[in-house]
Amino acid sequence: MSGPPAGTPYWGPAEPAPQPQVHGVVTADVAVVGAGLAGLACAYHLAERAPGLDIAVIDAQGPAAGASGRGTGLLGPRAGPAVDRAVRRFGPGTARRMHQASLRAVTDVLDLCARLDVPWVRPGAQIMAARSPGGLMALARQARAYRELGLDVPVLSAAGIRERVGVAYRAGLVHRPAAALDPAALTGALARACVAKGVRFYGESPLLTVRPGDLVGPELVFPHGRLYAGQAVLAVNSAAQHLNLPVGTVFPLEVYALATAPLSAPAYEALGGRAGYSVVDAVPLAPYFRLLPDRGVMAGGGSAALPSGLGTPRLQAQRERAWYWLERWLRSLHPELAQVSVTHRWSGRIAMTADDVPVVGPLHGFPDVWYIGGCGGHGLALSVAHGEHVAAALLGERGTGDPMPWHRSRAPRLPVRGPGRALLRAYVDIHGRVVRRTC
């Protein structure tokens, strides 16, 4: 492999302005911890709707340093479990509302990208496809559920998929609206828009703990100082676990991605370049691919790992195995991909819950503190929507409609410490091996 060292994302850095650490005692009307898409969307909408509000954004590193800058930029509809499972769990009415909310989230992100002049936004369609028997069964269940709910999600035959992306899948579903974009560019644009609206930023300041304040609002403790706020938003995703936040179990999974050098123009068009298609396998954790603006291809999925205290050599060996399999899978899709060089390989962390439903709600026992996290790998659209939802809630603008299933303060608990963690790791590993054998 040529190019930057392993671990370097395809996307460039968000390039924020230098940010001071939290030192001494700092105050704010609203403190947002986490400078990813959810936290920055929350700060942006707060500043836009309440211009006089004193808002501080604090991050352990800086904007887009976490999952928001290390994703693969697939913007598509999905909120919580697959639609057929959502019907069984929540009923048809709520399942329909969940899907429609995810569609609105996609269009809202596209509108936001246009407003902030985000580069590398490629509207198109997202095809959920299958090659394995398990994937076909999953697609059939989802197609039936969409049809019974009266949702417009067309079915594609094998010939229809090949006509669009030149890859041999057996069937698929077409999701619109969808797009492919640069997630770090969106995050950086949000950060700059927040600065332009007067939001203060602090970097290199990991949150150590949060406490109910003595007089008003919470107290946030950092290595070199404290911040007292009237209200706080903890957009910290799976960091909730080591902060011992009372949000149930929101645990991290490490996932993997790679990008290639540019293809020839005919090969790029054969893989759907003109129409901007992305393809996601219907099996959970299964691999997917999208095209890049420089005519390269990006792929992700196929493996996941529960982060542990592995030493650096073992952790790197685990990543190398995941990248090796993902590269082989990508090269198998089309003859033009057989010799293209891989230029970038990296990993990132997503946050999962036991029931695949995010957590967006006030923190129990902590007045005026909200938490956002647990999108399960579908956070590009949902994180922005969740940030806007929490901003509206803090300003007293919440609507009177029924809440979504993810408007909750806790996820189910899982035994992720001691023997339970080993069992969860074994489950993830076995699931990944099944995916790699069948895709």
Automatic annotation (TrEMBL):
Domain FAD dependent oxidoreductase: 29-392
InterPro entries, alphabetized: FAD-dep_OxRdtase (IPR006076), FAD/NAD-bd_sf (IPR036188)
PANTHER family found in the cross-reference section: FAD DEPENDENT OXIDOREDUCTASE DOMAIN-CONTAINING PROTEIN, SARCOSINE DEHYDROGENASE-RELATED
Protein name from the UniProt record: FAD-binding oxidoreductase
Organism: Streptomyces ziwulingensis
